[in-house]
Specification:
About 40% of the residues lie in helices and about 10% in strands. The protein is α/β, with parallel strands linked by helices. The strands form 3 sheets. It has a 6-stranded parallel sheet with strand order 3-2-1-4-5-6, with helices on one face. Strands 9-8-7-10-11-12 form a 6-stranded parallel sheet, with helices on both faces. The protein is built from 15 helices and 14 strands. The radius of gyration is 24 Å and the shape is globular.
Length: about 500
């Protein structure tokens, strides 16, 4: 008899994505669920967006349920008697705030967060009464008075804004997680909070796929806030990430870039297994490129945080050099159509820019163009880049995240946040047909060698089955990561593979 418990029943926990949104991460999750048909999945997405009306993807037979939970908003105060705070609230919130500001004290943040998670399911919910603003002010001023670090100005109004935003985020701790054998949390602060709370309540093993690195960036909705508020929100996301790395039984970053980020935020190297993104070659068979006109493709949602502005800035310069050039924007969501159209209108090039929703057939995403511009949003996983490579199209990518290590020598990487460099590289490829086609062929071969969905299925199938048991000795050496320029060579992974 196999002493290792079988992980047959999985909760896939996401942040407003699969199966309700057809974005890059949603496509990755769909591939995972449909490919691992021998496992039963309960799909849970936790979001602070508007609740979706229906799944965007058809649900396969191995999905038992799909549920979306909106965090909602803090209820309005009334004259009714409010719940008394549980004993220990002040101490727990003080620990939470100390750990939030002091990145060298992650245990204090975790202790406070765990206490909040334990009481968050109570009715009436005590989150609205936690003394977050007062404690944030106390800890902030104490650190400033002690000259621990140079901090921006932080006043009572700032403290109240942060407290309200944190209370909203912490509502994810009250989301019930299904009773399963394993929780697989994919990306983002919001789903990770729900996963941590579920783990502390039930002890269910937690597998964390690090597909995004959102904590270091400033979100567009936060630009209106003061420097102090933005600093605390970034530190909150970083603190949640560190807690997730400490609590997860296993962490599966999508690239060396994501793995480095996890290590820098306290992840135990012994619990890191790098599993690169993969796509199904049958869905991206490639096609002969069109002869004319010079055509560029970019894939993204079209929203303010999607990389659209930089693409349009670059295309303005491309159109000046190649007046007959055409730009296809693929994957623009319904919610961002108006924003996207406004941005296109400002360029004065509306006649040469085409806006498309995400095609139902994956093979049509990139084959309409001769060159693909990979300009991702700050938290986008590398899936779209792999799809472009598998389609046999040459890629010009910003040197952001895992782009360099994914492309290797099969594409062109340019400095981030420089539309002129992006434009120059794209124009060079559009003018150089032999080099363009050679790079496209090389990109597809690299994707076939290293980034196929069957590799992802095989590894995640093993992780799901054997998560509770470390790999026995001797383990088979399995190199899942591909060394590439500008990145350190990732460690070879050791994992016991088994055939079904």
């Amino acid at each position: 008899m196999n002493p290792t418990p079988s992980r047959e029943h999985i909760c896939l926990l996401t942040g407003g994505g699969y199966p309700y949104r057809r974005d890059a991460l949603g496509g990755w999750c769909r591939t995972l669920v449909e490919g691992l048909h021998r496992f039963r999945f309960e799909l849970l997405t936790v979001t602070d967006r508007e609740l979706p009306s229906a799944p965007a993807y058809p649900l396969p037979p191995n999905v038992g349920s799909a549920r979306a939970v909106a965090l909602g908003h803090e209820p309005a105060r009334s004259g009714r008697r409010r719940a008394q705070l549980p004993e220990g609230a002040a101490d727990a919130v003080t620990q939470f705030c100390h750990g939030l500001l002091d990145e060298s004290a992650p245990d204090r943040f975790t202790a406070g967060l765990r206490w909040i998670a334990e009481v968050s399911g109570n009715r009436p919910n005590p989150l609205t009464r936690l003394p977050l603003a007062d404690k944030l002010l106390d800890v902030w001023w104490a650190r400033q008075d002690a000259a621990v670090e140079e901090l921006p100005r932080f006043g009572v109004r700032d403290a109240r804004i942060v407290a309200a935003l944190l209370r909203h985020a912490l509502r994810a701790l009250a989301v019930p997680v299904p009773g399963v054998d394993l929780v697989h949390c994919v990306g983002g602060t919001t789903p990770l909070l729900a996963a941590l709370s579920g783990r502390w309540r039930s002890g269910t093993p937690l597998l964390l796929t690090e597909a995004r690195t959102p904590v270091a960036r400033q979100r567009p909705t936060e630009e209106r806030h003061s420097p102090a508020v933005r600093l605390l929100l970034r530190r909150f996301r970083a603190a949640v990430a560190r807690t997730g790395y400490a609590e997860a039984d296993l962490i599966a970053p999508l690239s060396g870039y994501h793995q480095t980020f996890a290590l820098e935020h306290g992840a135990d190297p012994a619990r890191l297994i790098q599993v690169p993104a993969g796509v199904d070659p049958k869905e991206y068979p490639g096609a002969a490129e069109i002869d004319s006109p010079p055509t560029l493709v970019w894939a993204g949602s079209g929203g303010p945080d999607s990389g659209l502005t930089l693409v349009l800035d670059a295309f303005t310069e491309i159109a000046a050099a190649l007046p007959d050039a055409v730009l296809h924007l693929v994957g623009v969501t319904e919610a961002h159509e108006e924003h996207c159209a406004d941005q296109i209108e400002r360029t004065g090039l509306a006649g040469t820019i085409r806006m498309h929703p995400l095609p139902a057939d994956p093979c049509e995403r990139f084959t309409v163009g001769q060159v693909v511009a990979h300009v991702p949003g700050p938290s986008d996983p590398p899936s779209r880049l792999v799809e472009a490579m598998m389609s046999g199209r040459p890629v010009v990518a910003l040197d952001i995240g895992p782009a360099g290590e994914t492309l290797g020598e099969t594409g062109v990487v340019v400095p981030a946040d420089d539309p002129s460099e992006l434009a120059i590289a794209i124009v060079d490829l559009l003018r150089a047909t032999p080099r363009r086609r050679a790079l496209g062929g090389a990109a597809r071969r690299r994707a076939l060698d290293h980034f196929t969905a069957d590799r992802v299925m095989r590894v995640y199938g093993a992780l799901y089955t054997d998560l509770a048991e470390p790999p026995p000795e001797p383990a088979i050496e399995l190199a899942l990561a591909v060394p590439a320029p500008r990145t350190p060579t990732p460690a070879t992974l050791r994992w016991l593979t088994r055939e079904d």
